[in-house]
Write a structure and sequence with these properties.
Immunoglobulin-like; TolA/TonB C-terminal domain; 5 helices; alpha+beta; 16% helix
């Protein structure tokens, strides 16, 4: 992800159990590495895995006794050079419903974040702490045939990582589990661009929005829900006009800020802006 998104266990709760995971398809493992030179992430290695492998990871990591409560606020360092961050993405199909899942394993802190997308909505589920099982998870990662997402000699740091402050987590590309997401309190309706209206273009534009601790919008850009804050691919003139109009409108919104416990914090969120012709 180009910038980490804040998530909360209360957002879009979706029931994932082991039986559903056994139906997973298109399971892909990627290791993301922070590059201080480019100030961005790149994929260091990737591989494919089977349903049985994902179920085994599920049993080790996403156990009930590892689940973090809704009142817990945690941060996983995105830029730390000793971080080993592994993305496990997968799809589930139930009838006509396609569910996208992304399990992010932060080996440094022993944290797992599960993001889910039901239909077009962007959301997330919860976080788990699996530090005591880090060596087991590392062994499962090394089993994957093809490109290894984890070096053979990797060991989790012996000392516990220093606690990270959530106050500036959104600016460091960290993954942040908050206790309350931002809520829009002042919305500015976007103008419908003439070229889009004349071309009959309708769409929902997802705007990645960095909401500061005071509720103001610090940054806004078009977001692609499955992969985080990204610029969209090639678009028609009408689609580009809608994207620009949506971003311009959201920049003028104000929010009740996210919270980490009782402390307001800055976070990235995705705001959908709908354009529909009457």
């Amino acid at each position: 992800m180009g910038a980490a998104l804040a998530t909360t266990g209360r957002a879009n709760p979706v029931a994932f159990d082991r039986r559903r995971i056994l139906e997973a398809r298109a399971i892909k493992i990627e290791r993301r590495v922070w590059n201080p030179g480019t100030q961005g992430f790149h994929t260091a290695s990737s591989a494919r895995a089977g349903q049985g492998w994902l179920a085994r990871v599920w049993d080790v990591v996403l156990r009930d006794d590892n689940l973090l409560s809704d009142s817990t606020c945690v941060v996983a360092c995105g830029r730390c050079l000793d971080q080993v961050s592994v993305d496990v993405s997968f799809d589930l199909v139930h009838g006509l419903l396609l569910t996208h899942g992304l399990l992010v394993l932060h080996m440094r802190e022993g944290l797992a974040f599960l993001h889910v997308w039901e239909g077009p909505s962007f959301g997330s589920l919860r976080a788990w702490r699996f530090a005591e099982s880090s060596e087991v998870v590392a062994g499962l990662l090394r089993e994957v045939k093809g490109v290894k997402p984890l070096e053979a000699g990797w060991r989790r740091p012996l000392a516990e990582p220093e606690p990270l402050s959530p106050d500036s987590a959104a600016y460091r590309d960290d993954d942040l589990l908050v206790t309350g997401l931002p809520e829009a309190v002042e919305k500015v309706a976007p103008d419908y661009p003439p070229q889009a209206r004349d071309a009959g273009v309708e769409r929902v534009v997802n705007v990645g929005t960095l909401v500061a601790a005071d509720g103001s919008v610090v940054a806004a850009r078009v977001a692609e829900p499955r992969h985080g804050i990204l610029e969209t691919a090639v678009q028609s003139a009408g689609q580009r006009a809608l994207s620009e109009a949506a971003v311009d409108a959201v920049r003028r919104w104000r929010f009740k800020p996210a919270t980490c416990g009782s402390t307001p914090v800055a976070v990235w969120v995705v705001v959908p802006v709908r354009f529909k012709l009457q």
